[in-house]
Fold these 2 entries.
Entry 1:
Amino acid sequence: MEKTQAKPDSAAGNVDYKVTPSKEPLLPHLRLPAPTSATITHINWSSSLFFSYFKELVGREVTVELKNDLAIRGTLHSVDQYLNIKLENTRVVDQDKYPHMLSVRNCFIRGSVVRYVQLPPEGVDVELLHDATRREARGG
Amino acid sequence: MATTEEESAVKEPLDLIRLSLDERIYVKLRSDRELRGKLHAYDQHLNMILGDVEEVVTTVEIDDETYEEIVRTTRRTVPFLFVRGDGVILVSPPLRTA
Amino acid sequence: MSGGPGLESLVDHTISVITNDGRNIVGILKGFDQATNIILDESHERVFSTKEGVQQLVLGLYIIRGDNISIVGELDEDLDSSLDWSKMRAHPLKPVIH
């Protein structure tokens, strides 16, 4: 736990910490341009491939392997644009070694801690993936 | 912007990966992991879907008595694997030789 | 596009959070946001070790930053109370290595 460093003035007490609003923007060079339709299109196509793919996989059994070496098997319930994953009817693959989640049946896994997702072979249409990938690559 | 260029033009790193679609590639990952598999999909984060994947994990243990390093590799195969791009260190296209 | 982790259904329910440093914190979900920051009431940590059973540390009201969260699990309270955690021995979970 970090402690806030004591400011030298604070020892004297009665320090006014109120921030006086300035008319000038703090970081004028960081002001973003108004969004155009082009930038919005860009955001839409970028990285929607796997988001869309995982949405198609909802209802199937997957195994999510995390960056802490935990592997959780379950039914894919939902996914969001960060590739956060919700699983239902979960079980940890090596439950004897990892009893920590024994009483958890449904869970939310943060996308950033996912290393792999083992996919059901029947849920992979190779041709479709190739086409979608080429389309997405062109968009960039 | 690249609509008039032919499919095989290689201008940036990801173009080289595009040319590896449906080919077996080598991927080196963080935490001493390596993958070999057929590339079926990828995006600009290097998230990928690989097929017929072989994973090799290298671990180093120190012997309690001799303090020697014991290097172990564990292998497994997975039919289809989604790989999150933030763990990818390098991607190598299929070898032309061998 | 719908945003956020969609934890509405877990509000006022007991959840088990695995943090990136491998800790297991159990408490009642009171709130969350887009970044998976969460408010946990009546929270306590379950400390796993191989030397003794699970120890409970009382923590109270906690706000956990989303960046440090690996898993948010819905605790099945019937299942949970049927388990004898004081006899459970296990290594603590490994930290997440990005």
Note: The longest helix of chain A spans residues 126-139.
Entry 2:
Amino acid sequence: MSIALEERLAATLARLILDPAAPPARHIAVGAASPIPAAACWLVRLMGHPVRLSLLHKRSGNPFTEGTRELFDLTGQGRIDLFFLGGGQIDGQANLNLVGTGDWPGTGVRFPGSFGSAFMYFMTPRTILFREEHSPRVLVEKVDNISAPGVSPPGVFRRGTAQALVTGKCVFRFHPDRARFSLESLHPGDTVDSVRAATGFDFDAEADIPATPDPTEAELALLRGRVCDEMAETYPEFCKRVWGRTRAA
Amino acid sequence: MMLPSVDALAAMVPDGALVAMPPDNSLPSVALAKALIRKGARNLRLLGVPVSGFATDILIGAGCVAEVETSAVSLGEAGFAPRFSVALKEGRIKVRDATCPAIHTMLQASEKGVPFMPLRGIIGSDILANRPDWKVVPNPFAEDGSDPIVLLPAKQPDFALFHAVMADSEGNVWLGRRRECATIAHASKAALVTVERVVEGNFLEDERLASGAISATYVSATAIAERGARPAALLDEYGFDQAYVSDYARAAKTEEGFRAWLDREVFAGARKVAAE
């Protein structure tokens, strides 16, 4: 069985979660409609790393007893270490636009809205940005509207920024000191030139960019087995599409 | 107060009211939204707590809504909310974007009866730039530097609308751990709640039920609406009806499709009952 892009992305996100240079991830929250980040978190957990996962849209076993505000209260206190965010537009300074294109509040194409991004991006020690579509319409030079800014001026309380941006083509590392991305690794089939052509923002790239590593045999076995078991209830369509799993009755 | 029908509950909501509703994952009363459409409600100002879903989209499509304040409007897996998107584009509704914890915080200020509460984050976002009612002040307790922080005004909805599992003889309602509905009820002038059933007794006398109950202090009126959250899920009682929402999302892409859907799903049932 060849490696599916979803499996590669999940394993890549898992490596970023475990990055020893980043602040520790003891408690990770995963939002709605995020099957690949959820798979990455389960992979980390099932590899034996002690991490608490709060999956916000799990049908059974809602992690919160004080309503949906509990996630934000926990995050406000600094008790959520890592969150995932995406965006209809992401720019070269890691600004996120979840509102829409054109004038405020999205008079061009309206996206659903900012959700908790304007808070979570500030209050978690790190955020992994994930957007599978890697195109000039998503990765823009400057977002039309800022739901959540990539960096903040000195004096504004902020616990962290983006750690990295993972797309269907590559991994970018974010450098908050200069508010720029650098190319960290390329998925199979992509080159620096093909990434440049598909990216609306300028980014740094060293002479030799490594390939994004394949998932290991052990990671693939977990993803196709126990990770899929854990995800089947919340993401039945995803498990069916990627792993051909139909939900047991 | 137990009312005979969900339509009697809807009759309590005057045009122009500020109405707070939870989204699809958090016990919306879709039955009550449909009753508001049948009643011909107009100029409602909806507050999504903290985001908005199916019920908001059908109310907008039916012309009941003047304003939406929310952190997102979405049909989840079925994609963008079609009637919301069209109404925004055509300028028929005013949209006030927020971010989830800001909506919770504005309601919590109302719960406490204080005029505002602070919240971290948000600074540098265009959400803030478009919210003249939100203010940035220096943290008065900061030991050094100015430490700017956002202050949010208390928000008191006229009505909280949601669905619960059951009501008791005393008018308390029970909905388990979805405490955001309790926050809305506490913060609003009145809560109108649909329930699956009414049971004998008093939830507040039962230690195991009390923590998932909302006291009748906050609940102005209830009515039975079986499967009243549908197509949204109700805890462990019934699941999310993805096929129903996907069918709606397809139909509501066009005005004609939406009108046909409305006629079939909102008005036809009522006509059938009236004819019986």
Note: The helical segments of chain A are 5-17, 35-46, 69-77, 117-123, 192-198, 217-231, 236-243.
